[in-house]
Amino acid sequence: MNISSIQKFFAKKFVSDSMFAIAAHIFVGISGLIINSLIGIYYSAEGLGIFSQGFSIYLLLTLLANCGIMISAQKHASQYSSDDKTLAQIFSNTLAATAMVSLCIALCTYYLFSLNPGILNSDEVLNFVLLICSTIPLFALNKTMNNFMVGLRFMKVYSGIRLFRWSLIVLGILFISINNASVLKIPEVFFFTELSLFFLLVIYCRPFWGKINLSQIQLHLSFGVKNVLASFVDEIGIRMPILIIGYISGNLEAGLFAYVLSFSRSILLIPQAVQKSFNPVFTKHWFNNEHQKNELNIGKVFRYNALTILPAFILLYLFYMGYTYYLMPPEYLFLHPLLGILMIGMGTIYLFGPFATFLIMTDNLNTNLFRVSISTLLHFGFIFLFIHDYGNTGVAAAISISMIINLFIMDYLYKRDINIHLFKNTFFSFRNG
Question: Is the model's pLDDT at 216 over the cut of 50?
Fold first, then answer.
């Protein structure tokens, strides 16, 4: 087999991986819209506000519970994908490390909120968080196993797990909603779903089980701790707007904003899916010093994103108007100006999202932490600057402004630390076809 045929094979593999990942991400996006719609219809905007705040806290806690170990599993599985013995060590020890950390986080969180209920401004949100604490270790373990699959480029498995997860969650919430059960029953749906996925993944991954080694656990914990702070800060930037609105303006306003935010973020599922497929390819080329191949691939991915952004955003806006008009109460329809403002910032992630993890993949974890910290501080600064005078509109503007600034920060740090000229390899890649 000659070099040309090998390159064509990997090109086809990347495309097929991306298609599976995109399909799964689109399904997740649709599931999120269905969930928000069901809760918004059956429990009102206030119920949606309770769910959105509780779910945001849950995602932040699961990120801490995983401690960045899922990134270590993905990176090292990609780096040693042809060494079966090393893969077994990576899988077993990342799972052991995740189990240790996630159990501690879940227990500490439960007792923290139980003993200090005044931390949250809403009793309903507090009870939601307490009930969902038992799901945290399961979700963290499942994330580690599924990211290990991504590192090996088993995108069908990764996509199948996501499809199964959100199918169960949608069906569970639908059952709860039509039976007029309390919104506080939703945590039970998440627990049952993650428990089912855990058993499936454990069975599927049995060829990768190996011996537990304390030094290996320390290695992955060390990598994870360096990475988790950046990931946590980044996730705070995503989740905190809902919590800030809920704290300042109440559950109703938080629910309304959560609805339109879910639409604006749904378009990002496409670049996120491409990123999942692109990360292993980039990592392999990077550690093989094949930097020119990475530059060419960056240009190709960007050109695809640039050609699809306008039709994708127009379709999203039209879908929002039609979906909301026919299926939701009237108060949701008048939120479309917020969607327009949010889409400005989301456009930067749509174009550059597949390249956002390069600092992590190249072991520049401190630089990545600096990047996301500056971005999140700007995020919060603009939100608190605008929310009192402009309400949810101000929060939407704050999100978009901080996203645009983050793009320029990313370009500067990439040039300085990993010699990747992001704007040159993207905007100017059209000159090279």
Answer: yes
What would the mean pLDDT of 230-243 be, rounded to a whole number? 81
Strands in 67-207 per DSSP E: none
Rounded Cα–Cα distance for residues 44 and 25 (Å): 27
Amino acid at 132: I
b/e map 178-197, b = 16+ CB within 10 Å: eeeeebbebbbbbbebbeeb
**Max mean pLDDT range (205-214, 294-303, 337-346):** 337-346
* pLDDT at 2 (0 to 100): 42
Distance CA 251, CA 122 (A): 8
Q: In which residue are the tokens 């996203």 written?
A: 403
The CA distance from 212 to 215, in Å, is 9
Distance between CA 353 and CA 169 in Å, rounded? Answer: 27
Give domain limits for the chain: 7-432
Q: How far apart are CA 74 and CA 69, in angstroms?
A: 9
| 198 close to 144: Cβ distance less than 8 angstroms | no
Tens digits of per-residue pLDDT, 355-369? 888 888 888 878 888
pLDDT at residue 395, rounded to an integer: 94
Which H helix or E strand runs over 411? helix 365-417
Residue 42: which residues within 8 A CB-CB, separation 6 or more? Answer: 177, 178, 180
Query: What's the CA gap between 402 and 375, in Å, rounded?
Result: 6
Residue with tokens 């780096």: 79
HSE-CB at 353 with a 13 A cutoff on CA atoms is 23
Q: Which of 10-24, 257-271, 381-395 shows the highest mean pLDDT? A: 381-395
Phi-psi domain of 250 (left: phi exceeds 0; alpha: psi -120 through 50; beta: other): left
User: Count of CB atoms within 10 A of residue 319's CB?
Assistant: 13
Between these two residues, 287 and 130, which has the higher pLDDT value? 130
